[in-house]
Amino acid sequence: MPEGNTIHRLAREHTRDFVRRLVRVSSPQGRFAGEARRLDGRRFRAADAVGKHLFHLWEGGLIVHVHLGMAGEFYRFAGPPPEPRPTVRMRLSTPAVTTDLIGPPTCELIDEAGRAAILARLGPDPLRRGANPMTVFESLYKRPDRPIGDALLDQRVISGVGNIYRIEALFLAGIHPLTRSRRISPAQWLALWELIRDLMRRGATRRRISTVDPSEVPHPAAGRGGRDPFYVYQHEICRRCGSRIREIPLSGRRMFFCATCQRKTGGGRR
Ligand SMILES: [Zn+2]
Questions:
Q1: Residue 175 pLDDT > 90, yes or no?
Q2: Residue 45: enclosing H or E segment and its boundaries?
Q3: pTM for the full model?
Q4: From the CA of 177, how far away is ligand 1's center (Å)?
């Protein structure tokens, strides 16, 4: 499932490819055909990402809102594109480049009020300039008994964080995922926010998510998992200390953690 870093990378790519250009829009699949006809040949003004939501702003105040959900994907073709697959919901093209969107749960035409309503439901996005971590901290305190690992996936609290980043950031912060929100101090929260933001920034410039410090030698017990780009995500053995990784369901997703490196009171070894 794409996390916020992927959406931000796509927004930059679409900005580069389409902004200020007249763009052809179609819906080979047909489910976006009426909307595509309204957009076809218009000037593309901007692409913007907030959390896991992507917005294409068109001249005339029209906005396309895309959420990729679990399986949606964009495919980019430089030069003459292939015939579209019958599943392409939306195709954008200029003479130089074509982008196909396949399988999104959400691809809809909205206006500025619709966009404002979506943004009002989203917590701060660590990848956006000016995002205030203390706004998130205040939301955490509204549900003080909620586990921090659960709160991090709630897009109303903080937007853009997906399962991999919540798992790896909590590991790096040395915080046990079931730590109650009220036990997280402001300083711990600010450190966790910075970890999340830095990991996501790294992920927004590359296609592949990696959270490990390449200079950190994996624990010998980690075996094959020591070559993975993660500390604990989908691991059996902690890459750092060699302990067995625990897995629990948390907010409907698989949560991995190391009970040696991560403590309920927070404050890890780093
Ligand atoms: Zn460990």
A1: yes
A2: strand 44-50
A3: 0.91
A4: 14
